[in-house]
Amino acid sequence: MFDYNHALILAFMLFTLGTAGVLLRRSALVVFMSIELMLNAVNLVLVVFSRLRGDLDGQVICFFIMAVAAAEAAVGLAIIIAFFKRKKHVDLDRASLLRS
Amino acid sequence: MDLYPLILAFPLIGLLINAVLGRRLGVRGSGAVASVAVLLSFVGAIQAFIKVRHLVALGDGEARLVVRLWEWIHVGGFSADLSLLFDPLSVVMILVVTGVGFLIHVYSIGYMSHDRDYARFFVYLNLFMLAMLLLVLGDNYLVLFVGWEGVGLCSYLLIGFWYDRMFTTKMSNAAAGKKAFIVNRVGDFGFLLALFLIFTNFHSLNFDTVFAAAAHHPAATGVMTAIGLLLLLGATGKSAQLPLFVWLPDAMAGPTPVSALIHAATMVTAGVYMVARSHILYALTPDVLTVVAWVGGLTAIFAATIACTQNDIKKVLAYSTVSQLGYMFLGLGCAAFGGGVFHVVTHAFFKALLFLGAGSVIHAMSDEQDIRRMGGLRHKLPLTFATFLIATLAIAGLPGFSGFFSKDEILAAAFSRQPALWGLGVVTAGLTSFYMFRLMFLTFFGKSRVEPERAAKLKESPPVMTVPLLILALLSIVGGLIGLPPVLGRHLLGGFLAPVFEGLHHIEGFGHAEHLSASKEWLLMGISTVAALGGFLLAWTRVHKVGDKEGLFAKSRNGFYRLLEDKYRVDEVYDLLIVRPLSKLARFCWRVVDELVIDLAVNFSGLGVRLGGELMRLFQNGRIQSYAFFMVLGLVMLLIRVLVQQG
């Protein structure tokens, strides 16, 4: 017997973990990973509800998200690498360059 | 081909060509374009004159041509067309305006030859011709008003033409232009109010409709009086009468051809034209007509006395213009509307000639205008001298010259209406003769007082300037023949204008001007001739005989003389009573109302926005994580709200 609640609670915990990571960690790389965690939590929710409702829409969207996340990972990593080359660090607290 | 329907188009085309290409054409080309434009208008005016004269000769009352260009305004019950009315009155005016205007345009080619801004000058002159024709030809008060404002604008632009020069030590040319414009604004304010009153009472601004309505169903006496007085206020502004004459002497800051064209021959007679056009309204309110006569008579003598003491050649002529305009108003006020218009015509000839002659002198003297530093010029400038002398004889009213006949007609009308006004007129005639011959003697006779470096360059003006002088001189001599008094012959101008003033016959007290008996007529002519000769003799003994010995220009200790020299200190009184309180009020508005009240309110609201901005700025710290935090915070709050709502 598959308990939907368990899956949802797991997704909630993953999402919270990701959010906490985004808000609290200073390294851009870790923040980035935390975002991936949040995305996957959402994917999990989509899959669960898809199954609950008995149609495939949620799972299709889930694949979209994965594809977009892959592209986003490429872009995001490229930005972080470019930033590191210039500043020799990836500390977000020291990255408020647009504020004069 | 009929050119008269296109009469407005020529100056318009001329000014557009000069505005775009003027500087490439050179002074001769640019001047030729402007002159040809006016010449074509003049030809159109002659054609219109021939047609209208034909209609007058037929004698079936309606001697007029109307050219309807287009419907201009149509709002509710109000409509105003842009249509041109060619009736005897307007045809006489446009003949003078375009004819004298053409001569002055030609003269300007010579006069402005050393000026770098000739193109701008000719654009303004053509614009003036356009506005003046619109003023005279409009068949309703609204079009007249547009022209009225247009000529005012051109006057302002041309007075300040040399905007970088000083007129007197205290006043710049630009300030003189502003003064003319603002004083005229006072008159225009009266004019506008009169138009409002006319429209509310007669529901139209069209001349025919208004006059017919006024003659058959006049409004209350108070309203009619107010209309007459307010129109008169407008006329005193434009035509430099008491109490608004102060701008005209300062208008001499403009180039001399402008003084001749605008501030002597044409624009300043617009007020006379307007009153003559509105003769029905004035005939219905005889009291206002009396006011017109007194304003004219008093202005005439007032300005003539000032002219006797001035030492600037153009200032003398300026006060003379004010004085002669006073004569015209005196004529109008004595119900001699035709006589007033007659004097407009002859005055245009001889006063334009005087100004152009003065311009020729100033041109030859390298911009010297003070007659104390002239003298003996008749040998050096023979043509200018001869024409100036003719104009002087004409304005002084020596028998046979044009000024004699028009002045005599006005004086005769004054004599039969108000002998006191006639007395003013005769004294003014004597004064006119005196100040003109004084000017004549100081400028052209006696020993030369010219500074040596100016004397070296002294030579007669080129033909482009002297030919217009000669033509105007001819007109100044024979111009009077169009209006001979009854004892001498036919009054051609009076006969021509008769259909315009037809409506007067239906108004009580204006049926037929009572003709003076022949003996009285001769007597009046004799008296004005004696006055003119008296003025001449006075100038001969007091100015010419004294010569340039010491004392002639010494400061007189006579209080009255000094009062005249200071122009009755009218400017000072206006300054004290009007200008200074107004500038104090303006200063109050600036320092207190604007700087304290308005600025404070604006600054305060600005401060509020700034402080709000500072507060918001704290959140914009540039750190991604704090932005993310607020995003999450918002999401959480939204979530809570949704949950709470679902209960």
Instruction: Kindly provide the radius of gyration of chain B, computed on alpha-carbon positions and rounded to a whole number of angstroms.
Output: 30 Å
The average pLDDT score of chain B comes to 89
* Spatial strand arrangement across the major sheet of chain B: 1-2
Q: Which regions of chain A are unreliable across 5 or more consecutive residues at pLDDT < 50?
A: none
Rg over C-alpha atoms of chain A, rounded to the nearest angstrom: 17 Å
The top-level CATH class of the domain at 28-90 in chain A is Mainly Alpha
* Oligomeric form: heterodimer
Sheet with most strands of chain A = none
SSE sequence of chain B, one letter per element: HEEHHHHHHHHHHHHHHHHHHHHHHH
Q: Biggest sheet of chain B, open or closed, and with what strands and sense?
A: 2 strands, antiparallel
The structure class of chain A reads: mainly alpha
Assess the beta-strand content of chain B as a share of residues: under 5%
Task: Note down, in words, how this protein is organized.
The complex is a heterodimer of chains A (100) and B (647). Chain A is mainly α. Chain A has a domain of 63 residues: Helix Hairpins, CATH 1.10.287.3510. In chain A, 78% of the residues lie in helices and 0% in strands. The model of chain A has no long low-confidence stretch (mean pLDDT 90). Chain B has 647 residues and is mainly alpha-helical. Chain B folds into 4 domains: 137 residues, no CATH class; 145 residues, no CATH class; 255 residues, no CATH class; 76 residues. Chain B has 24 helices and 2 strands. A two-stranded antiparallel sheet of chain B has the order 1-2. In chain B, a hairpin with a 2-residue loop joins strand 1 and strand 2. In chain B, helix 2 runs parallel beside helix 14, helix 14 runs antiparallel to helix 19 and helix 17 packs parallel to helix 21. The longest helix of chain B has 50 residues. Chain B starts with 8 loop residues before the first helix and ends with a helix. The model of chain B has no long low-confidence stretch (mean pLDDT 89). Classes of the chains: A mainly alpha (100), B mainly alpha (647). At the A-B interface, helix 1 of A face helix 24 of B.
